[in-house]
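User: Here's a structure from my thesis project, written as structure tokens. My advisor, Dr. K., wants to see whether a designed sequence matches the one we expressed. Can you design one independently, without my sequence as a hint?
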């Protein structure tokens, strides 16, 4: 858990500020990576007329640490009075094709229950103008709420700066205010699930609210409507408060950028992965070897109802790979096909193979691992011709599972590799998560916010390394003919620096290797389905007993046993656990009513009416149009 402290000292003629990295680890005070006593901070420089100011996350812990220390030590809350959470409720215009804000709410995260409710966007922006300079206001889905702000400001002739990259809204700057997206800090986390994940004392009030009713201009808000929007804002503000108390720094726009910076701060010199080692031309070559998690249905079970399934999940799959697997470092070395590659097949090197092949066929009783890169990974049994860049472990697996009519190695790409360089930050987050795993009498995590923060950080560790060199910047403007906002790509896209793609390549490859090792252990004939870090096994009989543990990194955990399921294709399946059933289909909202769906119903073509909301720019902002969702047949 990291946070910045500052040692500040004054002489009559000099004022100087020195920043230190200060955090707690197992109740010890760590300054610049070394365990120190509180007195150390006081004695760091000449004592006379100096004072120390530390941002804190746990006041009780600081009180205990600094008891008896000289009075010049002071500290303040990490939670700034310049950070707010806001939300809009919107409705269609009565007599025109457009939308408007009919309720707005805003609360400071220092006091999440102090919610101000307003009824127009004009009132909301007037309120924002009175906030402290450089305030940050978070919406939980800025691309929706922010569109109303931008539409209004552009029509009013106001200057506004919008940051949109790859169709994602990151910030809106206006005057002294910056609007941000809390969804970038809490990816895939809805307001509805926050109370459970962060053990909050309130919940979302969806059951009391009618989204479809058109509100008339000037119509007063009902008590239920006021309470609804207040609750939404308070839930997000409480969650943000817990994130910041746990160690998040609001100077970062995304959880990924925060974690990436945390990794770099924690790693000793000589172990850091530098973007300067990967040139744009290297990135273009290496990205061909970057594949995601392995997700596939065993053809033997595809579309059939399967009974007596056991689901196992790998504990913290990607952080574990960063912990235990060799990770590339430094610049790539390109070797021609004549090189003796066996010299580099060890834990001190990381190897990628560029090759071409023809007449490739899957061997009997083997599982397919080769796919042409694309949006949907479709693993195939046969290729007439095939060319790819594969990490050595993926290449070996392909040679093991397929026959090749002919194969030509084009070249090898070799990196030096080290193991364990990411241990400091992973160890710290693991300890943070474990320390926050104590349950109360109701079985809820006492420090749920800290625990969830650690989980978010662990799950966000590898992805930032794969950041694209070109993150498509988009402009937004008002189309006066269509009378709504439009986004257009910037014709002069800049090539960025990226991070260090080889780490992400190595992490995902090591994860696939760990998954396939379980396939070998169980036998493919009983593997029903897998998705990245989870495997569904038929008639499990304890074959993984030595690698099963509820929480240890590097081990698998049994999630559910003895249930039934039907798997149509990747990320499309239905399970029945006896006490409840679930349907997982990529793109299907959780609001879909699945209560009456049976295994017989669960087929390609099954449709759910008006459950998916498609955003569309109209006059005033974005309207969410409900459309049907139909399960596709992917051959």
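Assistant: Designed independently from the structure alone:
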């Amino acid at each position: 858990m990291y946070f910045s402290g500052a040692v500040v000292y004054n002489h009559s003629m000099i004022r100087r500020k020195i920043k230190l990295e200060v955090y707690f680890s197992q109740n010890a005070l760590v300054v610049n990576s070394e365990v120190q006593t509180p007195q150390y901070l006081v004695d760091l420089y000449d004592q006379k007329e100096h004072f120390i100011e530390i941002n804190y996350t746990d006041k009780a812990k600081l009180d205990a640490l600094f008891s008896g220390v000289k009075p010049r030590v002071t500290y303040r809350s990490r939670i700034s009075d310049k950070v707010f959470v806001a939300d809009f409720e919107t409705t269609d215009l009565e007599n025109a094709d457009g939308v408007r804000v009919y309720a707005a709410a805003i609360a400071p995260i220092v006091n999440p229950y102090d919610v101000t409710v307003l009824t127009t966007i004009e009132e909301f922006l007037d309120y924002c103008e009175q906030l402290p300079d450089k305030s940050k206001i978070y919406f939980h889905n800025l691309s929706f709420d922010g569109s109303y702000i931008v539409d209004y400001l552009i029509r009013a002739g106001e200057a506004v700066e919008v940051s949109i990259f790859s169709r994602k809204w990151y910030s809106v700057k206006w005057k002294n205010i910056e609007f941000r997206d809390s969804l970038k800090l809490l990816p895939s986390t809805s307001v509805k699930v926050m109370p459970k994940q962060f053990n909050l004392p309130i919940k979302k009030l969806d059951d009391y609210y009618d989204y479809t009713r058109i509100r008339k201009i000037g119509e007063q808000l009902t008590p239920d409507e006021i309470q609804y929007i207040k609750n939404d804002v308070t839930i997000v503000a409480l969650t943000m408060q817990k994130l910041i108390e746990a160690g998040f720094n609001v100077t970062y726009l995304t959880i990924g950028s925060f974690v990436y910076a945390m990794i770099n701060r924690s790693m000793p010199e000589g172990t850091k992965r530098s973007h300067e080692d990967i040139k744009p031309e290297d990135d273009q070559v290496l990205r061909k070897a970057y594949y995601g998690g392995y997700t596939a249905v065993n053809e033997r079970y595809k579309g059939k109802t399967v009974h007596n399934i056991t689901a196992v999940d790998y504990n913290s799959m990607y952080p574990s790979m960063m912990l235990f697997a060799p990770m590339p470092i430094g610049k790539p070395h390109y070797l021609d096909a004549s090189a003796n590659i066996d010299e580099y097949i060890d834990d001190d090197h990381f190897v990628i193979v560029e090759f071409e092949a023809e007449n490739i066929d899957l061997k009997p009783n083997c599982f397919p691992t080769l796919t042409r890169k694309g949006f949907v990974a479709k693993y195939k049994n046969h290729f007439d011709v095939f060319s790819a860049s594969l990490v050595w472990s993926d290449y070996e697996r392909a040679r093991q599972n397929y026959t090749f009519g002919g194969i030509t190695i084009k070249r090898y790409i070799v990196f030096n590799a080290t193991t364990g360089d990411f241990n400091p930050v992973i160890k710290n987050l693991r300890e943070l998560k474990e320390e926050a795993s104590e349950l109360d009498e109701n079985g809820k995590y006492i420090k749920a916010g800290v625990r969830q923060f650690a989980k978010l950080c662990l799950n966000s560790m590898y992805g930032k390394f794969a950041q694209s060199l070109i993150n498509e910047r988009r402009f937004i403007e008002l189309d006066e003919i269509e009378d709504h906002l439009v986004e257009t790509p910037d014709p002069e896209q800049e090539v960025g620096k990226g991070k260090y793609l080889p780490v992400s390549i190595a992490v995902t490859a090591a994860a696939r290797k760990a998954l396939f090792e379980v396939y070998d252990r169980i036998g493919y004939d009983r593997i029903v389905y897998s998705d990245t870090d989870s495997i569904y096994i038929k008639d499990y009989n304890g074959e993984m007993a030595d690698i099963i543990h509820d929480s240890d990194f590097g081990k698998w955990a049994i999630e559910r046993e003895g249930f039934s399921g039907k798997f149509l294709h990747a990320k499309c399946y239905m399970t029945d656990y006896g006490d409840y059933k679930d349907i997982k289909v990529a793109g299907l909202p959780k609001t879909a009513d699945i209560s009456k769906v049976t295994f017989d119903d669960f087929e390609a073509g099954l449709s759910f009416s008006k459950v998916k909301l498609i955003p569309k720019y109209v006059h005033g902002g974005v309207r969410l149009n409900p459309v049907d969702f139909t399960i596709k047949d992917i051959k």
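When you compare it with your expressed construct, this may help: The chain has 13 helices and 28 strands.
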